[in-house]
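Hi R.,

Quick one: here's the Phosphoinositide phospholipase C sequence you asked about.
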Amino acid sequence: MQQGTLMRKVKSKSWKKQRYFKLQEDCMTIWYQSKRTGKTESAFSISDVETVREGHQSEVLQSVAEEFPPERCFTIVFYGRRGNLDLVAGSAEEAQCWVQGLHQLIEPRSFPLTFALVSCTWIRDWFQKADKNKDGRMNFKEVQRLLKMMNVDMNEDHALRLFQDADKSESGTLEGEEFVLFYKALTQREEVLSLFREYSEDGKKLTLLELADFLREEQLEDEGTEELAMELIDKYEPSETARARHVLSADGFLMYLCSLEGSIFNPQHRGLWQDMSQPLCHYFISSSHNTYLIEDQLRGHSSIEGYIRALKRGCRCLEVDCWDGPNGEPMVYHGHTFTSKIPFREVVSTLGKTSWGNSSSPLPSMGMSPASSHPQRYGQSTAVQGISQCRIPGHKAHGGTGGQSASLSPTPQELKHKILLKGKKIGRLEDTLDGPGDEAPDVSDDDNGAEAEEERRRAKVRGTQHGSALQKDKETLAQALSDCVIYCKNVPFRGFQEARSHSRPSEISSLSEAKARKLIRDEGNEFVRHNAWQLTRIYPSGMRTDSSNYSPQEMWNVGCQIVALNFQTAGMEMDLCDGLFSQNGCCGYVLKPPFMRDEETLFNPSDPSSREGPGPITLTIQVISGQQLPKVANSKEGAIIDPLVRVEIYGVPADQAHQETKYIENNGFNPRWDETLQFQLHVPELALIRFVVEDYDKTSRNDFVGQFTLAFANIKPGYRHIHLLSKDGTSIPPSSLFVHIRITE
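And here's the predicted structure, written out as tokens:
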């Protein structure tokens, strides 16, 4: 891989250029140059790479699938909005060499290695930026300029003292390793050393028992603290001698605090930790709106990249709008608009290849509603052929039907590796399983005669309406497509009482955000009860032509499962979505609290006292410090941020709150706040906590720097690091916050 490899860089079906690609000696930078001119075209750092996809997992590579086999193709995906790099190797062996090599570089086996690697990479990247003449050395003026680039505004005398201490060769310049020493002195963590000394008798090391005391008293680890202390020493202590003596140095202590175990996110909740054997309606499900769009709703670009990105982000409910295309082939696009179009067969091919990369949990909806009836019958038949290739199960493929309750309320566990089609259906599921199911209700002997007769009359009217709708469905819907719809039959919403009397758990209603808000305001408890037994989908207002989003929290507060968002639009709303679904193995399913799974629940989000369980809890957050915060995008050269931290609480109305620290002037490198914020949570089971770092501006709106969002249930108390994410939800290493968390009743 380091010798340089000749590969094709592909931008479109007609643009395929040969380039030499080479991993530089630092093992952290890749450059590529034109085969024809020999001129270096571009270079990128390994730290810029988010992931590597094998095969035809991009729109560009799918367009050349007939020309190049999948085993020779791979896609390099970058953080942020930088475009993908699609490559075709000369052989499958060369492709595997690059894919495996890149995976090893960007996905080290342990978090301490990641932390060390990121820090080292970060130092090297900055050094190379500042080393203008590429002689591998920097004088004091160059170092001062570099500090400005790194968001550090330091007293000149102090900076010179650190520079001279690191200049071991006394040459007046810093070479590579000397600059690393300078950087380490610069990043000395006094707040961490102070905490270390509190528990260390000699101030130089933590013994096994001292570390166990820290874990028990500060980190609130209540079981097996000595065993855990031993594990942490073995895992994070860099000195072999210290490991052999079962002690932890200050460096090892910092490594632990910056690790997954030292993160604010409970590591036990990163994997699949919730019960997956409950009915689908008992889960919040990560859901996207018009998944094929990667821009606006009127003229935006439709792309299979939208599906790939959503699936990679943990989304389990996708939307596919099908319309008639040329020669009867269904096309996917936003109907009655000017968005571009993609063939339906490309969409289902992509879903078949990428649906199970991150999760085996079911896709409860490849939503084709209301679009399933858009294509004419021939186009619908073509769609069914594509669906069968995607292995979307019909009721026969799904297996036995069992009892009615099991059939109507399947679980994620039962539906693993299944894709469910949401759309129109001729008749009901019971019609398939048990024969006609729309019978008039029984009337008991003690019913009032007039009331009984009125109920019979209403039932007859409903039967007539149902028969008319059924006939219309038969006229417009192909039977084969109808048979693909099993557990997610679209039905109109006509009120909670109507639904309770005549709808089925296998049916689903879609509501606009405005309609949902009105129901939340007027019938909050009934909405929660309804969502305890049937799926509800919420979608954005048609006025959101810019693909903006509504807050999903108010919909989750009443138990709505499928809250569809525009995944292409970054912001607070998608931060909440990512924050909720970052748990449970990122499988796209989160189990609702017990009081939201009870069909007779009294809970109403507007009245927190209606929740059964313990009283309010107090969340206390001490914001201690920040580390290596990024500069604001498009900021002036030499500008240094004035960071502040705002903590936002999202949940039931009584819990909505935010507080912020003061701003620290001209220090984005290692700001210290040491401020305490306190919140009272009445329904912590529904609360999401969002940490936001901003650059204070007294004359205009503050600029976004970074954020991290998580569900309250996933918070780990104690001294914790918060590893910040960008506006797009991607990692921005090594930027972090250091906080102390306490939770009391």
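The domain at 190-262 is CATH 1.10.238.10 (Recoverin; domain 1).

Cheers,
M.
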